[in-house]
Write a structure and sequence with these properties.
The complex is a heterodimer of chains A (115) and B (116).
Chain A (H helix, E strand, L loop, with lengths): L3 E3 L3 E4 L5 E7 L5 E8 L3 E10 L2 E4 L6 E7 L2 E6 L8 E8 L10 E2 L3 E5 L1
Parallel strand pairs in A: 2-11
Antiparallel strand pairs in A: 1-3, 3-8, 4-5, 4-9, 5-6, 7-8, 9-10, 9-11
Chain B lengths: L2 E3 L4 E5 L4 E3 L2 E3 L4 E8 L5 E7 L5 E3 L5 E5 L4 E6 L8 E9 L9 E2 L3 E6 L1
Parallel strand pairs in B: 2-12
Antiparallel strand pairs in B: 1-4, 3-9, 5-6, 5-10, 7-8, 8-9, 10-11, 10-12
The chains are: A mainly beta (115), B mainly beta (116).
Chain lengths: 115, 116
């Protein structure tokens, strides 16, 4: 089974802190994604990566950056955390789609609170 | 731009009754469609997907979904609901021709509550 792990389940940070969220997948997937989940808004894509050192902005990249130095690891960085970044953050991975649009596999999520 | 609408924030159903969770989509060209489920304090789990062919797709835990191109809908169904089906359900879409970028657009989610 694919396993996607996230470094923390719960995180509390102060406004202005630099925050790192780590995600690791063990199935050699090329694609990795970071989403945030907010009530009534569903999942919104922050960034995704289709290869090592490659990244593309999603729908809401402002205030975030990412790093992918190794294929299995995809990090989300909040350069200066703000209270409006309080949310559930979900990481996902998938194979590169061909004729099959491979589904994404999700980690358990990190609930981040910025005070 | 692609979009997904899940018109019901919550669906309530009695155990043993059939359930339907609605999803409509908008996309350029033909779609790939997905359903995911999220149990409390967990990440999303894949349920089923529509690629092409048969409009009725069967997935995990007895769920199925019906693709209707003319109505641009992909409703999730189950003939007999269980209390353990209570969870948050997400519909997602992406157009077929997006190359290596498998970017999905998710709906806002529908909470399914199954009661005894």
């Amino acid at each position: 089974d694919v396993k996607v792990t996230q470094s923390s389940r719960y995180l509390v940070k102060r406004t202005g802190e630099k925050v790192f969220l780590e995600c690791v997948q063990d199935m050699d997937h090329e694609n990795m994604f970071w989403y945030r989940q907010d009530p009534g808004l569903g999942l919104r894509l922050i960034y995704f990566s289709y290869d090592v050192k490659m990244k593309e902005k999603g729908d809401i990249p402002e205030g975030y950056s990412v790093s992918r130095e190794k294929k299995e690891r995809f990090s989300l960085i909040l350069e200066s955390a703000s209270t409006n970044q309080t949310s559930m953050y979900l990481c996902a991975s998938s194979l590169v789609p061909g004729t099959d649009p491979y589904e994404q596999y999700f980690g358990p999520g990190t609930r981040l609170t910025v005070t | 731009a692609q979009s997904v609408a899940q018109p019901e924030d919550q669906v309530n159903v009695a155990e043993g009754n059939p359930l339907t969770v609605k999803c409509t989509y908008s996309v350029s060209g033909n779609p790939y469609l997905f359903w995911y489920v999220q149990y409390p304090n967990r990440g999303l789990q894949f349920l089923l997907k529509y690629i092409t062919g048969d409009n009725l797709v069967k997935g995990s835990y007895g769920f199925e979904a019906e693709f209707n191109k003319s109505q641009t809908s992909f409703h999730l169904k189950k003939p007999s609901a269980l209390v353990s089906d209570s969870a948050l359900y997400f519909c997602a879409v992406r157009p077929i021709n997006t190359g290596t970028a498998s970017k999905l657009t998710f709906g806002t989610g529908t909470r399914l509550q199954v009661t005894l």
